[in-house]
Amino acid sequence: MGIPTLRLSTPSATDDRPDEPLLLDRFGRVARDLRISITEKCSLRCTYCMPAEGLPAIAPEKLLSAAEIARVVGIAVHRLGIQDVRFTGGEPLVRRDLVDIVARCSAAAPGVSMAMTTNAIGLDRRARSLAEAGLTRVNVSLDTVDRRHFETLTRRDRLPAVMAGIDGALAEGLSPVKINAVLMPETLHGATDLLAWCLDRGVRLRFIEQMPLDADHEWDRSSMVDAETLLDVLGRRFDLTEVGRDDPSAPAEEWEVDGGPSTVGIIASVTRSFCSDCDRTRLTAEGTVRSCLFSDTETDIRGALRGGATDEEIADLWRGAMWNKWAGHGIDAEGFEPPARSMGAIGG
Ligand SMILES: Nc1nc2c(ncn2[C@@H]2O[C@H](COP(=O)(O)OP(=O)(O)OP(=O)(O)O)[C@@H](O)[C@H]2O)c(=O)[nH]1
Ligand SMILES: C[S@@+](CC[C@H](N)C(=O)[O-])C[C@H]1O[C@@H](n2cnc3c(N)ncnc32)[C@H](O)[C@@H]1O
Ligand code: SF4
Ligand code: SF4
């Protein structure tokens, strides 16, 4: 069965592209941030992301190897101007050769920031080897500090393992450690406790508006917890002062908490979309480029990687894919359809 198949983009749509090495699109944006999904597998089953049974397995021969991922990173950094690399999934820690992937990518692109987005299960045991391999920092998904709610939301009773993973990351200096919390109506009342916990641990919390990328297609705008509702709830316990974005392409807007210096972020992808400043490009675990989370097409580079293409030929395929990037996600547009892949299959 495998991950749903998408339409592959047509290279002919690049005739009007200027002859420029960087990853430009028609809307004047330049992609500098590469997000690489390395697996579809996961140790959790968050309801807003995965189906209860997990995603259909990718056939082993379709998965990019550590060496192939490192080659792609080298091309992205040296030919296409990528400045930041992030490993995601699925759950990157589920992949046994993760340390090897990080080490090879660091060697292919010395000095480039290598981050990981993770649920942190097992990170306490692997944080040191990952840091030694060149991992710079981690963002950890944690939606609630209430064990019962955590189990309901993720369909697994693993809150203590996540907390141990966060401590492990802090102990190994994989910092700043940022926490990502997707809010659901049933966990909204726990948002202030989560913020208090993060302030106490010295980690940077960001709340995220749920996007229509759940595998079960149950997202409904009317039940989504939006930034405005969340600010209202947080404001009842904390004094918040808006400070804006770290940089124009950062998804999170920041608020100072109780006079600072600690902050809380909100990633309001739906109600305060940041698509006009987007600097992202994505590589799926099977080696296709996605220009946007919500794309309905992908550009295969695995075939080129394995078919003897030169680095420059692969770079050109990628440039073409990004030139055709949409203006934005279009969630508010009439006739909007979510992509065939869910968040866990794209690589969030
Ligand atoms: N709309 C939109 N949302 C995104 C995109 N990438 C990530 N997100 C959302 O932002 C959340 C946080 O993403 P992270 O993987 O932690 O990355 P980040 O926030 O860009 O990373 P930092 O550089 O550490 O701030 C994800 O859980 C998604 O919900 C994107 O390209 N578009
Ligand atoms: C797909 S996960 C992959 C990495 C890792 N397993 C994790 O959870 O951090 C990446 C990010 O996507 C976010 N995410 C998943 N489904 C989402 C959705 N429907 N809307 C918004 N963010 C979502 C998660 O909260 C997480 O921060
Ligand atoms: S959000 Fe991350 S941890 Fe949760 S199911 Fe999706 S991939 Fe797994
Ligand atoms: S939805 Fe697409 S265009 Fe908007 S920020 Fe995400 S990747 Fe960029």
From TrEMBL:
Catalytic activity field: GTP + AH2 + S-adenosyl-L-methionine = (8S)-3',8-cyclo-7,8-dihydroguanosine 5'-triphosphate + 5'-deoxyadenosine + L-methionine + A + H(+)
Annotated S-adenosyl-L-methionine binding sites: Y48, G90, S141, M211
Keyword Metal-binding in annotation: yes
Upper taxonomic lineage: Bacteria, Bacillati, Actinomycetota, Actinomycetes, Mycobacteriales
Protein EC: 4.1.99.22
Record's keyword terms, sorted: 4Fe-4S, GTP-binding, Iron, Iron-sulfur, Lyase, Metal-binding, Molybdenum cofactor biosynthesis, Nucleotide-binding, S-adenosyl-L-methionine
Annotated gene: moaA
InterPro entries the UniProt entry points to: Aldolase_TIM (IPR013785), Elp3/MiaA/NifB-like_rSAM (IPR006638), MoaA (IPR013483), MoaA-like (IPR040064), MoaA_twitch (IPR010505), MoCo_biosynth_MoaA/MoaC (IPR050105), rSAM (IPR007197), rSAM_sf (IPR058240)
SMART domains from the UniProt entry: Elp3 (SM00729)
Named cofactor requirement(s): [4Fe-4S] cluster
GO molecular function annotations of the record: 4 iron, 4 sulfur cluster binding; cyclic pyranopterin monophosphate synthase activity; GTP 3',8'-cyclase activity; GTP binding; metal ion binding; S-adenosyl-L-methionine binding
Protein name: GTP 3',8-cyclase
Taxonomic source organism: Rhodococcoides trifolii
Similarity remark: Belongs to the radical SAM superfamily. MoaA family.
